[in-house]
Amino acid sequence: FSKNDSKGSNEFARPLKNYSSEYLIRWLSLIENYQSKEWQKVWFYVLGRSSFDERLVPLALDWMFRVYPESGDASKIKFILHTISEYLRSRIDRDQISELESFVCDIIDHEFYNIFEFIRPKSLFSFVISSFFSNCDVESCIKFSEFCLDNVPRDVFLWNNLNTCIKVWTDGAERFDEKYQSKLSEVGFNVRKAYRLAKSGDSR
Questions:
Q1: Predicted confidence (pLDDT) at residue 71 exceeds the cutoff of 80
Q2: What is the pLDDT of residue 165?
Q3: Which has the closest alpha carbon to 41: 31, 88, 6, 33?
């Protein structure tokens, strides 16, 4: 990348339309540019111009896997995560999907309040909550459910998703120690109750 094309190490001197998609993909692929405030803007621009380029999804995955652990800011990855989970999932192989779901689980498990970054759009919340409950351990499942009971608003859509996900755990509770069976039964009951209250319009 020549100095004539760049203001600094990761800023563009000219509008993006003046650069080829190939040039921009090469720029996106440089790890030194991952912290640039322009990175997402460039990725979405290239996606709009070369939407079938098979390199875009792996680039976005690598960017998320590197940027979130360094920043700890879930809001930074929200829009790309939503785009991949909603529109580009068919381009990801099974191993990449598993890696992405495990990554999302770690984000929520690390800090339960991160769930509020992903409550909307609805499809993103569905993906995030499903990824968490599919990859967490039983203790995290219980603790997160208790957190949601105390903190998540009584929205029908949210609690329908939570109720569906926790049911997978409560239906298989017999495979856990007795202390976990009891706790799963308790949180399962309370989540179902919260869902019923949400449907009835009761915000308690």
A1: yes
A2: 93
A3: 33
The position carrying tokens 């111009």 is 49
34 closest CA partner among 1, 62, 6, 58 = 62
Average pLDDT over residues 87-109: 89
Q: How confident is the model at residue 204 (pLDDT cuts 50, 70, 90)?
A: low
pTM of model > 0.70: yes
Does residue 50 surpass a pLDDT of 80? yes
Contact 167, 189 (CB under 8 A): no
Angle, helix 39-49 to helix 21-29, in steps of 10 degrees: 140
Contact between 142 and 187 under an 8 Å Cβ cutoff? The reply is: yes
Q: CA angle, 147 as apex, 107 and 169 as ends, to 5°?
A: 80
Res 83 pLDDT > 80: yes
Neighbours of 200 (CB within 10 A): 11
Of 95, 91, 169, nearest in space to 130 by CA = 169
Per-residue pLDDT for 107 more than 70?
yes
Cα-trace Rg, the chain: 20
